[in-house]
Amino acid sequence: MSNYDVIVIGGGPGGYVAAIRAAQLGKRVACVEMYQHKGETPALGGTCLNVGCIPSKVLLETTEHFHRLDSLAAHGISIKGASIDIATMQTRKDGIVGQLTGGIEQLFKANQIDWIQGQGKLTAKDSVAVTDAAGKVETYKTQYVILAPGSVPIDIPVAKMDHTHIVDSTGALSFTEVPKRLGVIGAGVIGLEMSSVWHRLGAEVTIFEASATLLPQVDQEIAKDAGRQFKMQKLDIRLGAAVKQADVKNNEVVITYEDKKGDQTQTVDKLLVCVGRRPNTQDLFAEGLGIKCDDRGFIEVDDQCRTGLANVFAVGDCVRGPMLAHKASEEGVMAAEVIDGQSPHMNLELVPSIIYTNPEIASVGKTEEQLKAEGIPYKKGDFPFAANGRAKAMDADKGRVKILAHDVTDEILGAHIIGPMASELIQELVVAMEYKAAAEDIARICHGHPGLVEAIHEAALAVDGRALHKVNK
């Protein structure tokens, strides 16, 4: 039996980062992770690096390159007969995943972190039992525990996955050929990103979204802009379409759904189910330890991610807040530093949210709808990329930057971007809001020309009706 200062259960972005930070602070650390990539190769990195954030972005990048070939004629570039090899695309994706997960393994070695391969369970406040692939159980003692089990896709009874015809996001990342007809249940982040990948390669994509509103969590001016652009791309997004049944027949999937016209049917070759994720907390800890979960399975924690058991912390997708890798990592760092006796703080109100479609969609802080509902007086400014020289040169001049500021104090309360490199541009506003900057602060900063960032500068100016490169209303 080995003794540790800290044992982390889960090797995803929350867990592996927590382990590294705890080791940096001089703790003896072990990380328990059971995942095997493609069921064969043990790997750190969790869903994000293996079957989530990283592989999806690789496929999005590759397919965007291929899709843009059709628009290069306007640049004077002529390409004929271009094709894409799906096997090569998937090999590249797997190679990048392997490099990054292997990099974490090297970081563990460099920081003298023990990687215990198996399924971890907290059996007592100071004991973690690990079951390996052969079913052998070994118990380890520790002073502190950080629970970082991540999340798993939600399975719905009306469309049971067979992982061949009806798949989750993992399956959609690994198609060996482009499905002629792809159905997608859920127009959320995963649904839109995976739809974009296969639509760019020629699949006829139909997205079924039960909500009457596209991206209800996004500022609705931005969401409506996104809807218009997706429609121009010929993505078939059916809002208010609730799937009632999906059956595999003759190597096809027959979908029955209900919309305002009543019951409808549609046949596809593959069906992707992505209606959300749930915390992976089943059989994670023994009962009676003082750790509580809410009715959705999320572990209850305080502002520093401490559970009801003083020496046990929980981070990432298994606790409150957005289910995002970067949020999990920051919570992992916080937990490790609390264990070290420090007093870190994380602002859950300023976790940026990003959708890596084309156009990209990124936001931080309050939406206009939230400000109205909360009765907060505000003013807003926006600026279109259509008036931005760099965006024009990039042939990416659709979308806008929108900034919401307090009507009295001018403090920035929310920022929303749809357009080129929104994922990178939003970071300036995250920093500004963390330091409680006013819109005028951004307006008075000299931004480089020509640059996409000038759209942020102009949106900040527009908050007070003084944008320079658009007509102020």
Automatic annotation (TrEMBL):
**In which compartments does the protein localize?**
Cytoplasm
- Please state what class of enzyme this protein is: oxidoreductase
For this protein, the record's InterPro entries field holds: Class-I_Pyr_Nuc-Dis_Oxidored, FAD/NAD-bd_sf, FAD/NAD-binding_dom, FAD/NAD-linked_Rdtase_dimer_sf, Lipoamide_DH, Pyr_nuc-diS_OxRdtase, Pyr_nucl-diS_OxRdtase_dimer, Pyr_OxRdtase_I_AS
- Give each disulfide bond as a residue pair: 48-53
Q: Which residues form the Pyridine nucleotide-disulphide oxidoreductase dimerisation domain?
A: 351-460
Q: What is its EC number?
A: 1.8.1.4
- Which SUPFAM superfamilies does the record match to this protein? FAD/NAD(P)-binding domain (SSF51905), FAD/NAD-linked reductases, dimerisation (C-terminal) domain (SSF55424)
> Entry's PANTHER family?
DIHYDROLIPOYL DEHYDROGENASE, DISULFIDE OXIDOREDUCTASE
Q: For the FAD/NAD(P)-binding domain, which residue ranges apply?
A: 4-332
Residues the record lists as binding NAD(+): 186-193, 209, 276
Q: Determine the domain of life of the protein's source.
A: Bacteria
Cofactor, how bound (note): Binds 1 FAD per subunit.
Keywords of the record: Cytoplasm, Disulfide bond, FAD, Flavoprotein, NAD, Nucleotide-binding, Oxidoreductase, Redox-active center
Residue numbers annotated as active site: 449
Something else known: The active site is a redox-active disulfide bond.
Give the catalytic activity.
N(6)-[(R)-dihydrolipoyl]-L-lysyl-[protein] + NAD(+) = N(6)-[(R)-lipoyl]-L-lysyl-[protein] + NADH + H(+)
Q: Name one Pfam family in it.
A: Pyr_redox_dim
Needed cofactors, names only, are: FAD
Specify the protein name.
Dihydrolipoyl dehydrogenase
